[in-house]
Design a protein that fits this description.
single chain; 384 residues; mainly beta; Spore Coat Polysaccharide Biosynthesis Protein SpsA, Chain A; UDP N-Acetylglucosamine Acyltransferase, domain 1; 2 domains; 11-stranded parallel beta sheet; 6 helices; 40 strands; 14% helix; globular
Length: 384
């Protein structure tokens, strides 16, 4: 059995976080999403793994080369859809195979339910089915897949995870995997629908917060850093090597803090928070339900809640995120999400900046002066 993992796409709806990395490499709970997929496959005894790369392929290949598990790479030179990405790996596929997206979380138990069944797919109920391929079934077999319907007839959706045979390839044309499966069904083929135990996708950047919380729930507490005697650590907390925790700081898990971080005194880090490597949190900060990537600095007296903070962000003292809901248009879809802030990479915010339910692009600079940012800010902007 082989596994084919698709990691060639950008993830446009997750911008600005995918300008400098593909969606599959976004760190969630301090690990790239694709790493969870590879782990789930390896735990099922599958060692023959093909990863299809495309968007920022050198970055993905460099990451894959650093893994303990060897993988083979296929290249999609132009991003022409998921079916075309699979076609790019056809010459390397020798028999039955699992097909998995590299930018969704899946658990090993769900992979175990499908790996030994030919022509099957993992399905799962989702509260927002119109963002996915909606699956209709009869007697446990898939009868129809409707791609992103405006009005969904079901809450059951495709996870994008299939167990297939080489006989599937003739159905691939200028289409996506869903269309190819539909062609197979129209030709009399059968696909068994198997309900996944645990599966998470992030359609939009704020969805990463839910995925982060879900994956943090599984962590094993390890303390490799240095904590003051007056530090209070409760619940499942991972603290990386070289990290220091100041006195009177309270950490309530699940929380992950990466290597070589500096957490100042009198801070409060609440559940569902991940802080990447080399992060700095100055005194008297309050963090909660936050995904903070590598090399970020958060100034004193800051309050960061319900936020995704990209790599290398420098937030001055008294920075705050304010959670609310407002209408947004992303890739033609009008939605009303509730979150604090999404900051791209290398954002610099002056003192007393408030981010209110906003998406801020990469390399944005906000000058000092009690600024309230409540709308989307494009990449490379200066807010004065």
């Amino acid at each position: 059995m082989q596994a084919v993992i698709l990691a060639a796409g950008e993830g446009k709806r997750v911008r600005p976080l995918t300008r400098s990395r593909p969606k599959a490499l976004i760190p969630v709970a301090n690990r790239p999403i694709i790493e969870y997929v590879i782990d789930a496959v390896v735990k099922n005894g599958i060692r023959d793994i093909i990863v299809v790369v495309g968007y920022r392929k050198e970055q993905v290949i460099r990451y894959l080369n650093g893994l303990e598990t060897p993988v083979e790479v296929a290249v999609q030179d132009k991003q022409l859809g998921t079916a075309h990405a699979l076609k790019c790996a056809e010459s390397k596929i020798k028999g039955d195979f699992l097909l998995l997206p590299g930018d969704n979380y899946i658990d090993a138990g769900s992979v175990a339910k499908i790996k030994d069944t030919r022509n099957a797919m993992l399905v799962k109920e989702h509260p927002s089915p119109s963002n996915f391929g909606v699956v209709l079934m009869k007697d446990r077999h898939v009868t129809q897949i409707i791609e992103k319907p405006a009005r969904s007839p079901s809450f059951m959706v495709s996870t994008g995870i299939f167990s297939l045979t080489p006989s599937f390839f003739p159905y691939i044309g200028d289409n996506n995997i869903t269309d190819a499966v539909s062609c197979m069904l129209d030709d009399g083929g059968k696909i068994l629908g198997i309900v996944a135990d645990d599966w998470q996708d992030a359609i939009y950047p704020w969805d990463l917060l839910k995925m982060n919380a879900r994956l943090l729930a599984n962590i094993t507490p390890t303390h490799h850093g240095t904590s003051s005697r007056n530090t209070i650590i409760m619940g499942n907390v991972q603290i990386g090597k070289g990290t220091t925790i100041g006195p009177n700081t309270v950490i309530s898990g699940p929380v992950i803090i990466g290597n070589d971080c500096e957490i100042g005194p009198n801070c409060c880090i609440m559940p569902d928070t991940s802080i990447g490597a080399r992060g700095k949190v100055e005194p008297l900060c309050y963090l909660g339900n936050a995904l903070i990537m590598d090399d970020c600095s958060i100034g004193s007296h800051s309050r960061i809640l319900d936020a995704v903070i990209g790599e290398g962000c420098m937030l001055s003292d008294h920075t705050a995120t304010c959670t609310s809901a407002s209408l947004m248009e992303i890739e033609g879809a009008v939605i009303k999400p509730e979150f604090g802030a999404i900051l791209g990479d290398e954002v610099q915010a002056g003192a007393f900046t408030t981010f209110k339910n906003c998406i801020v692009g990469n390399n944005v600079t906000v000058e000092d002066g009690n600024r309230v940012i409540s709308s989307s800010v494009p990449d490379d902007s200066l807010v004065i």
